[in-house]
Write a structure and sequence with these properties.
- The structure is a homodimer.
- Chain A has ten helices and 13 strands.
- Chain A is an alpha/beta fold.
- A five-stranded mixed β-sheet of chain A has the order 3-2-1-4-8. In chain A, strands 11-10-9-12-13 form a five-stranded mixed β-sheet.
- In chain A, a hairpin with a 3-residue loop joins strand 1 and strand 2.
- The longest helix of chain A is centred in the C-terminal third of the chain and has 25 residues.
- Chain A is globular.
- Chain A starts with a strand and ends with a helix.
């Protein structure tokens, strides 16, 4: 059986047809052009899903359902997008509209939750029924899977681990209104700021040299590979911040595994092994609690639409 | 139908017979005397449960089951007490032993989880299916109820919200091996230390006067009622610490309500109303997420055995 998954982003819409085994039989990506407004995006989305079915060689009527991930506040039970700043949507009945226009079942969910579900069903998390997925990207996305099912909290307002507070004495307000949020320490933006601060204090080393023409989330990793101790210090501190939050999530949820995605997680073992080791050293302290795995996400940008498809499986 | 609930503490064992409606038809409390060792405690426990049935006027054979809360690390799925420092138990098959000796079904769980279940079934949380229960006592106990069921995490190692880290730059190690744990800011012990620190800085005020003969978790509340601004400052800061953790838990779990128990929560509205208001001011920030209630626990020391009884309902 076939399912359509759609991942609506601020810039691109990625969609695919997925079968029960998680094989992507067809996929496509196109520009969101959010300025067009909701109706135009909706109609093109439906037309493209129909086209994918035809390209994949089956009738649209055979499609079992359409799942959609949206980068905003979504009430997935009601199928409503409450608010999506990137697309300028507010209170739209996306699931209802898709079903009315197509006759196919539709479910809508927050995009990070979709990606979490995608990784748990078809990616790095597929050996586990209980995972927490964290994206180390521009912002911090997160998703919680308990017993193989998305856990979203009341009004789908949970699973926002990026806004866990990790620094109660901080004076810096987060965009969410809290202070000292995890996101403000572990987002790609925060990591770049930490790299910049290290360069200001050490303006003549390898790291400063590498960043002469611009700093990115990769700069410190490149410098560290060249033996730069300043860069290594930046990375170690960052790893400490990530692990500190994972320890909290372990104490609250104790999942089987954390799946780390997003740009910075692409650094792979350099980043993930020390986090896994610090986390499990902590867990070992009391000697009775089970080991928690830490793995990199494996589906990349496909996690979102694959998880969206899983919403209707 | 009747169920026995047992709450084993380091000092006292409290037990009762509870019916399906949460009415306690008989209860008793006696000294644990943990030095006697596991076997003696086990045999007396069974004998007392039998006695309660007889006092309550029904045959022990009619008892539907026995639930037991233990202050330690419990694998509730297996019925094993992995470790309990207060009782000096390690790896005992409590549920198996009770069932073998009595023929009645038995389930065992961590005591804070039992108390959480008790409050959700029969206490302040009974209007909610999703709560987080926090005890502001000597240590911080916590329990998570999702869809009316205890959530314990892998190996029952979750629901330890007291060891959420809220101060990543802290140098103070917690007993768990982490640093800057929530418990170290909001336990009764921490609150007393915060009161002491305020007195050292203000040795001549009302608060200092009240504490001349000893400080407790109540001292600051007594002084604040007399208009002391130093004490009010201590309480405000403490309320900030509590709320900071509740904000994190809201972002992760978004329950319908937090139920606060333990000694400090006995201060009632003085403590709970400002926490509720701060938490919901934060939630209101984004305008789409649902209100979270904050209520005081209502079962006091009975929550543990009542929740233990609920384990076998």
């Amino acid at each position: 059986m076939y399912y359509a998954g759609v991942d609506i982003g601020g810039k691109n819409i990625k969609m695919g047809i997925v079968d029960d085994f998680g094989s992507v039989v067809y996929s496509m990506t196109y520009k969101t052009q959010y300025e067009r407004g909701y109706d135009a995006i909706l109609l093109e989305l439906i037309s493209n899903v129909k086209q994918m079915c035809s390209e994949a060689g089956f009738d649209f009527e055979e499609l079992c359902g359409i799942g959609i991930g949206v980068p905003g506040i979504v009430n997935s039970g009601a199928g409503l997008v409450m608010s999506c700043a990137n697309l300028n949507w507010k209170g739209v009945d996306l699931a209802g509209d898709v079903t009315n226009l197509t006759g196919r079942p539709c479910r809508v969910c927050n995009d990070a939750n979709c990606a979490a579900l995608g990784e748990q069903r078809f990616g790095s998390g597929k050996n586990f029924k209980n995972i927490v997925f964290i994206t180390l990207g521009t912002g911090i996305g997160s998703g919680i899977i308990i017993d193989g099912k998305l856990f979203e909290g009341l009004g789908c307002a949970g699973a926002e681990a990026g806004h866990m507070g990790i620094m109660v004495e901080s004076e810096d307000k987060c965009r969410c209104g809290n202070k000292g949020c995890w996101e403000d320490y572990i987002s790609a933006q925060a990591f770049v700021a930490q790299t910049e601060a290290a360069i200001r204090q050490n303006p003549n080393g390898i790291l400063a040299d590498i960043c002469k023409d611009g700093i990115s989330g990769k700069s410190a990793f490149i410098a560290a590979k060249q033996g730069d101790t300043v860069a290594k210090g930046v990375i170690d501190k960052y790893i400490g911040y990530v692990t500190y939050g994972l320890i909290s999530l372990t104490n609250i949820l104790h999942p089987q595994a954390f799946v780390l995605g997003g740009g910075i997680a692409n650094e792979g073992a350099t980043l993930i092994l020390p986090i896994k080791s610090m986390l499990n050293d902590y867990i070992d302290n009391n000697g009775f609690y089970p080991y928690v795995d830490v793995v990199g996400a494996s589906l990349g940008n496909d996690a979102g639409f694959m998880g969206a498809a899983a919403l209707v499986m």
